[in-house]
Amino acid sequence: MDPAVLRQKYAELFPESHEPICVAAPGRVNLLGEHTDYNDGFVFPMAIDPHILFVGGLNGTNKVRMFSLDFNEMSEFDLDRIDYSKDHGWSNYIRGVADQLIKAGYSLKGMDMVLQGDIPQGGGLSSSAALEVGAALLMSELNGLNADRVELVKLSQKAENEFVGVNCGIMDQFASMMGELDHALFLDCRTLEYELVRTGFEDMGYSVVVIHSGVKRGLVDSEYNIRRSQCEEAVQLLRRELPNIKALRDVGVEHLDLVNALPGDLAKRARHVVTENQRVLEGIKALEKGDVEFFGRLLNASHESLKSDYEVSCKELDILVAICQDTPGVVGSRMTGAGFGGSTVTIIKKGHVEQLRSRVMDEYPAKTGITPQFFVFTASAGARVLSE
Ligand code: GLA
Questions:
Q1: Which of the 8 DSSP states describes residue 361?
Q2: What angle do CA 299, 302, 307 make, to 5 degrees?
Q3: Of 129, 150, 115, whose CA–CA distance to 28 is shortest?
Q4: Right CATH number for 3-199+381-386 from 3.40.50.720, 3.30.360.10, 3.90.1150.10, 3.30.230.10?
Q5: What gap in Å lies between CA 42 and CA 189, rounded to an integer?
Q6: What are 83's strand-pairing partners?
Q7: What is each CA distance from 4 to 1, 67, 115, 179, 363, in whole angstroms?
Q8: Ligand 1 residue neighbourhood (C-beta within 6 Å)
Q9: Is 205 left (phi over 0), alpha (psi -120 to 50) or beta?
Q10: Distance between CA atoms of 322 and 205, rounded to whole angstroms?
Q11: Are 306 and 32 in contact (CB under 8 A)?
């Protein structure tokens, strides 16, 4: 992707509009802390190199016109009456952000933009969050809103919850906006306090491999909402014994006996969240000590918990994780993101990456009939204005 190509398209499509600026917003991969964000818990994602580029400028009208180079489609809406688009699904993330900014009291002027991205869609790598966060930053810059970055994160999440209708937590938007080069983000989803952590993977000779299973996350929305309400139900029941808890975040591993006594699936769901929060805390400590091997074991344990207790994995993700965990040099591997398809994340000694790539490229298609996509990612910067 080349900003110059987007600029040229902008000039062709919108010859009357103002000189544009260019904004980039990255995808993310979550290293540890899955399905904990909406339980007020801990997550540990990093922003990645694939991103969405926007070239946009004011147009002196009351309309927003958006051209997607990926879909080769133009979509537009009126700032006075922001409607949902059935035909151009991608545009709803941008519409939703404009809607939230206006509801938060900001005034927006008409804008034109061209956008293009290389984050695999349906890969669980947060192409939607990148779209929202990039649009939020672009709108803030063009309209001189001086909005705080964390406020833009919150509005982006709200856009997805209320306008797009997906009840996601805050992790993806936070990672896309606040990520930093060479750092992962240790985020407390209750207080939104965060710490940028140098993982040290590169320096210590490890790589982060992400493999897209090629399975688009089919069941994800309905099952995601079911998991959320099961967690809320678990909190209600646990309050009988632990009256002060507000979310599963407040339940520690010392209370696992109470958790295990919950009825049916609720015990399993709550157990995942409680142990996953603990894994994040232990993972951060392990990295502080440079213990990547232990961090890797936490990834393996996380996968087991997501598969058996939270039940959000699928056959293909399990096959990928099994291949990875069985390959020399791999210290840990798990599914990442919401589940039911999407990607896995694997920490591996650098010298073994090619061996893993060829095993995955041979064995996974043989077992599933699907060609996977194999990536090696380093931690990238969060959303930014490019001064090319
Ligand atoms: C999706 C959601 C996030 C988070 C993850 C699971 O990516 O958008 O908020 O809940 O699933 O950890």
A1: H
A2: 130
A3: 129
A4: 3.30.230.10
A5: 6
A6: none
A7: 9, 15, 12, 25, 40
A8: 34-35, 37-38, 168-169, 171-172, 337-338
A9: left
A10: 22
A11: no
Phi, psi of 318, rounded to the nearest 5 degrees: -65, -40
Residue type, 254: E
Fill in the amino acid letter for 48. Answer: I
Burial class (CB in 10 A: 0-12, 13-18, 19+), 258: middle
- Give, using CA atoms, the residue closest to atom 5 of ligand 1: 338
Nearest atom in ligand 1 to the alpha carbon of residue 34 is 12
CB 264 within 8 A of CB 24: no
Closest of 196, 213, 222 to residue 335, by C-alpha: 213
The answer to whether the CB of 214 falls within 8 A of the CB of 316 is: yes
For 223-276, how does the pLDDT look when each residue is reduced to its tens digit (9 = 90+)? 999 999 999 999 999 999 999 999 999 999 999 999 999 999 999 999 999 999
* Helical pair 220-238 and 264-288, crossing angle rounded to 10 deg: 90
Residue located via tokens 């407390």:
188
Ligand 1 mean position to 337 CA, how many Å?
6
d(CA 317, CA 321): 6
Identified catalytic residue from 172, 182, 203, 362: 172
d(CA 183, CA 280): 15
Q: Residue 333 in 3-state DSSP?
A: strand
How close is the Cα of 180 to the center of ligand 1, in Å? 20
The pLDDT profile of the chain, 388 residues, written as one tens digit per residue, is 899 999 999 999 999 999 999 999 999 999 999 999 999 999 999 999 999 999 999 999 999 999 999 999 999 999 999 999 999 999 999 999 999 999 999 999 999 999 999 999 889 999 999 999 999 999 999 999 999 999 999 999 999 999 998 899 999 999 999 999 999 999 999 999 999 999 999 999 999 999 999 998 666 678 999 999 999 999 999 999 999 999 999 999 999 999 999 999 999 999 999 999 999 999 999 999 999 999 999 999 999 999 999 999 999 999 999 999 999 999 999 999 999 999 999 999 999 999 999 999 999 999 999 999 999 999 999 999 998 6
- DSSP-H helix ranges across 72-126: 91-103
Whether 203 is catalytic is no
